[in-house]
């Protein structure tokens, strides 16, 4: 019997984790990546306990933790007064998970370490500078077309996984609607070497600063050199041009409003991106399946997008394994679509929209009510734990397993 081969579009963390889990089951894998190297621009970095369990399953957890920062706590602040509202403690999840903490590891590190591990498998091929241009399928498999150094090529597989991002060629080739909306403002990400833990006094590695004028997310990552970097995320004004948002005046004034320095901040990276809340109408058409950003995108408040994508990857691999090795009917992939789509809508989309609204609330009475609700939640051990089960997506993963 010929070996089963899966074609994966995209060598981001979702595609790479999918490939690694598939290779560990003994399947042949081909990854097609449009870029020449792994994109190391600052992107997702927050990895929740539910996802750490999955990274452990593919054998990367020790290196993953070593290359990042362990974050036991996260905090909400009132930015205008620089006052801490409340702190949440993942230690309350000690009986629920082997990883009662978050790890701040940049997503390109996960992709790189996964690709290094994939090199140990004889039947895995990773093709960079190979841009997927389309996919077709029949009853026996699917064929991906791509353009690369050798010109136009075709790749034949039993299954195709589209993990090629929010602009997914795979999703578009399958004519799958990407339902939802785009926020009118952009998000500006500034990376600085300044130490906000010292500047703010009492903040932790993950902080959410509520402000009716301009909320801010503030969190620390290790950086490639291990010396530590702080990322600050801001909403831009709807009428603000990209040039202004990325310019010096905007960059330095925004950081000064977080904490006023008597000098310029040392900014080492700037990034601006559009923000969407969208979910694919289905995550599967025949032998072509979507995972990660190709299936769903959301705003970054709460750090749920990449985590949900890794959850897609592991659920998908488990489902394919049942079909390939245990002779389950291929329609089981419809269950994958139901589980992951429902989970994203009910957990990731709802939470990230609510998180953003909590931070940007303008009505003074409503702001006080939201702060009081957070304090009451943190002070009640049961409510505190239930809140963490939701924010860590542990509750989401458990609920998804009940969907037939």
Description of the structure:
By secondary structure, the chain is of the alpha+beta class. The protein has a domain at 5-72 and 103-180 and 277-356: FAD/NAD(P)-binding domain (3-Layer(bba) Sandwich), CATH 3.50.50.60. It has helices at 13-24, 49-57, 61-66, 107-118, 169-173, 196-201, 242-246, 248-258, 305-325, 332-360, 364-379, 381-391, 394-400, and strands at 5-9, 28-32, 46-47, 69-71, 73-78, 83-89, 102-104, 124-127, 131-137, 142-148, 151-157, 159-162, 178-192, 206-210, 216-221, 229-235, 267-280, 284-285, 288-290, 296-297. The chain has an eight-stranded mixed beta sheet with strand order 6-5-14-15-16-13-17-20, with helices on both faces. Helix 1 (13-24) packs parallel to helix 9 (305-325), helix 9 (305-325) runs antiparallel to helix 10 and helix 11 (364-379) crosses helix 12. The protein is globular, with a radius of gyration of 21 Å. The chain starts with a strand and ends with a helix. 46% of the residues are buried.
- Share of helix, binned: 25-40%
Q: Characterize the overall form.
A: globular
Radius of gyration: 21 Å
Distance separating the two termini: 31 Å
Structural class: alpha+beta
Question: What is the CATH architecture annotation of the domain at 5-72 and 103-180 and 277-356?
Answer: 3-Layer(bba) Sandwich
Largest sheet: 8 strands, mixed
Output the number of helix runs.
13
Total strands: 20
| Spatial ordering of strands, largest sheet | 6-5-14-15-16-13-17-20
In the CATH scheme, the class of the domain at 5-72 and 103-180 and 277-356 would be Alpha Beta
What is the assigned CATH homologous superfamily of the domain at 5-72 and 103-180 and 277-356?
FAD/NAD(P)-binding domain
Beta fraction of the residues?
A: 25-35%
The residue-averaged pLDDT reads 97
Low-confidence stretches: none
Give the CATH topology of the domain at 5-72 and 103-180 and 277-356.
Answer: FAD/NAD(P)-binding domain
């Amino acid at each position: 019997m010929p070996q089963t081969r899966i074609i994966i579009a995209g060598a981001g963390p979702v595609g790479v984790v999918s490939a690694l889990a598939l290779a560990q089951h003994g399947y042949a894998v081909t990854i097609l990546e449009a870029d020449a190297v792994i994109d190391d621009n600052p992107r997702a970095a927050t990895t929740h306990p539910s996802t750490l369990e999955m990274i452990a399953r593919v054998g990367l957890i020790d290196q993953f933790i070593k290359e990042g920062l362990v974050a036991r706590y996260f905090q909400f602040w009132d930015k205008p007064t620089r006052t801490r509202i409340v702190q949440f403690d993942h230690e309350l999840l000690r009986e629920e998970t082997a990883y009662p903490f978050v790890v701040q590891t940049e997503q390109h590190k996960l992709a790189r370490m996964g690709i290094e591990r994939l090199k140990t498998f004889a039947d895995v091929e990773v093709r960079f500078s190979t841009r997927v241009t389309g996919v077709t399928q029949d009853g026996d498999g699917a064929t991906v077309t791509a353009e690369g150094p050798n010109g136009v090529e075709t790749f034949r597989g039993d299954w195709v996984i589209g993990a090629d991002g929010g602009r997914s060629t795979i999703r578009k080739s399958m004519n799958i609607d990407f339902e939802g909306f785009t926020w009118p403002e952009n998000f500006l990400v500034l990376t600085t070497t300044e130490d906000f833990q010292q500047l703010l006094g009492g903040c932790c590695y993950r902080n959410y600063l509520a402000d009716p004028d301009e909320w801010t997310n503030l969190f620390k990552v290790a950086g490639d050199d291990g010396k530590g970097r702080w990322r600050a995320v801001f909403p831009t004004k709807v009428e603000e041009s990209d040039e202004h948002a990325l310019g010096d005046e905007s960059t330095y004034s925004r950081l000064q409003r977080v904490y006023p320095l008597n000098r310029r901040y040392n900014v080492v990276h700037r990034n601006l991106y559009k923000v969407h809340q969208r979910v694919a109408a289905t995550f599967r058409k025949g032998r072509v399946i979507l995972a990660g950003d190709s299936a769903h995108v959301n705003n970054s408040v709460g750090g749920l997008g990449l985590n949900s994508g890794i959850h897609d990857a592991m659920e998908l691999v488990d489902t394919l394994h049942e079909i390939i090795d245990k002779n389950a009917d291929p329609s089981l992939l419809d269950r994958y679509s139901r589980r992951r789509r429902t989970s994203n809508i009910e957990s990731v989309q709802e939470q990230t929209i609510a998180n953003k609204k909590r931070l940007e609330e303008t009505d003074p009475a409503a702001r006080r009510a939201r702060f009081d609700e957070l304090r009451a939640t943190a002070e009640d051990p049961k409510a505190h734990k239930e809140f963490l089960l939701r924010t860590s997506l542990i509750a989401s993963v458990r609920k998804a397993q009940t969907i037939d």
